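re the bet — no i am not wrong, look at it urself. input seq straight from the record:
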Amino acid sequence: MKNKAIICKDLTKQFGDFKAVDKISFEVSEGEIFGFLGANGAGKTTAMRILCGLSYPSSGEASVAGFDVYKQQEKIKKNIGYMSQKFSLYDNLTILENIEFFAGVYGVSRPEIKERSTDLISTLGLEKEAKKLVGGLPLGWKQKLAFSVAVFHRPKIVFLDEPTGGVDPITRRQFWEMIYEATANGITVFVTTHYMDEAEYCDRISIMVDGRVAAIDSPSALKKRFDATSMDEVFYELARNAKRTSD
C-alpha cells in the first residue's frame, strides 16, 4: 500500500449561503497523477487553494504531505510546489534570475541553485536564452519554465492549476511528458483542468460538478461505467445527471 499524499474528508468551503466546495472526500497516493476535473466554476480552484495552505476550509478535514490544513499551513507550503492558472514568473527578470529567485524562496541553498539551474536550462534547451527576459518567451516555453521552477526544490507534491490553458496541442503533450518525468522522480501531481482529453493522462481523476465530487476513478473505469468512448461523454452524462437532481 502506498502512503497517502493527500487526504480529504467532507471538506467544505462556504461563502455566505453559497458552498463553493461541498463535502468533498478523496485520497491521493504518493507518486500518483491525480486529475481534478470540472467546468469553470465547479469549485476546483477553491479546493486547491485550501490544499495549498492558501485558504481555510469552513468545515471537514484534510491533510497534505502529512500536515493539517487548519494548523500546519506553513509546513504544507514548504513541502509543495505550485503553478497557478495565470503565468506566475516575472516577465521583467531573466530566465536564470527567475530560477534563482524562486529556488531561494523555496529554501534551496545557493551552491545547489547554481549547479541545478545550469542543468535545468540545458535540459530545456534554453542556454542561449538564459539571460533574456522571460517576457520575450513564447507562452509554451513560459509554461514549461514555470513548471520546472515549481518542482525545482523537489517537493513532495506539485499542484498545477490549469497548466496547459492557451497552449497548442504539441506543447500540451510536451508538458505532460514533463509531468511523467516528475512522477518518475517521486513527485505526486495534483492537476486541475477543464480539458477532458487530458484526463486520459492521469492515473485517477475526480470530476467536480457544482462543488461536489460527482465521480472518482481511473479514466478507463469511468468510461466503462458510463459506456462512453471519451471523457467528454462521461462529463456530459455527469452534468446531465446533476441537472436532473437539481430540477
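see?? Helices lie at 44-51, 73-78, 95-105, 110-124, 139-150, 169-184, 219-225, 231-246. told u. also The longest strand covers residues 4-15. so pay up
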